[in-house]
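Form P-L/3: holo structure prediction, ligand coenzyme A.
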Amino acid sequence: MSEYLPGLAGVPATKSNISDIDGEKGILAYRGYPIEQLAENSTFEETCMLLLDGRLPTHKQLEDFDQRLRNNRRTQFHIRDLMKTFPSTGHPMEMLQTAVASLGMFYPGNECLTGADACGDLNYIHNMTVKIIARMSTIVAMWEHLRNGYEPPEPRKDLNYAENFLYMFTGKEPDPLMAHIMDVCLILHAEHTINASTFSVLVTGSTLASPYSVIAAAIGTLSGPLHGGANQKVLEMLQEIGSPDKVEEYVDSKLTNKEKIWGMGHREYKTKDPRAKILEKLVDKVMDVHSSNMNPLLETAKMVEKVCEDRLAHKGVYPNVDFYSGILYNEMGIPPDQYTAIFAVARSAGWLAHWREQLADNRIFRPTQVYTGEPTRDYVPIELRS
Ligand code: COA
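OUTPUT (holo model):
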């Protein structure tokens, strides 16, 4: 193929059996299971296993995996010391990328990716997977305390993944409803076929770089506002708009200036993102309990959706996963600049599933290009140049 397609739109870059999207119908499935059923019935831990191993685990398998996650939550003190040297004004995604990359120095051992049987050490691959998923949430939660000048709480083994994350993040006993909502948010963000950050997992993984480098590369890719960074932008946008009566003027002025409305549109979905539908229902559920704080944000968001439907539906632009998630995180007391880091915590499961799939049938990525520069020519000495 010599035709160049900007953004590689529609170009298959891999074969995968991890997840699938029907963008016209608004369907997302992990390993064949519709996202709605997973959100309703599964847990983040079980969804991780489904993504990683390709099947729903038995009771015993889930218990073992969960226990391994619980046992791996603690990070070395050196990592905490390193994080204390980061500027408190640094963005959590840059902190996360740096901290995860540094894990490779504190927990070395990717030798088994460099031998003749490069990708055959399944034990190593499983261990790395557990270590990274378990520690991602610890690092994000620790940072919330460290950047505010406090010592973070230690992880707790008696709590599930979502509960422990909320406990470590807020320092308070997790509210059961909010812990359940965090669990569903983690499931919804865990995987999404071959998007930009997952593509970077495949590219970095294909060089047999360490899994820490692979995940650090993906975190960097996710951080941009056209990808994971949009959830923070949505909340800031809703706060800037302030109330439903200002929505129409705001949206029209953005569209006139050819600017994007955050949380709207998706390369794959030409209808409302199924994850946005689930999140909207969760927002409504939380509204019943905590109506006072959320009302203005939610009402503004619903009006943005309505006005955008009127202005943008003909382009297939509808709310995506980032549109409602921030409203929920805001209700949990999580600051907006941490939203993308939470996305990364969840997505580490999908990234690692793709890393494993890549290693199982690896060939280094080396695409080609359409050269648009000068033809080969002779070097011009500096005194002859005009
Ligand atoms: N607000 C306003 N218009 C939008 C829009 C948005 N959020 N998203 C897409 N459009 C419009 C584009 O302006 C374009 O219009 P045109 O054909 O008149 O030029 C058309 O819809 C196609 O959009 P395009 O940007 O080419 O689609 P893409 O597939 O390259 O980009 C996104 C997809 C997600 C990057 C894009 O929709 C976007 O920037 N959304 C906002 C950021 C966001 O929420 N990202 C999170 C994704 S999960």
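COMMENT: The chain has two domains: 15-224+347-360, 230-331.
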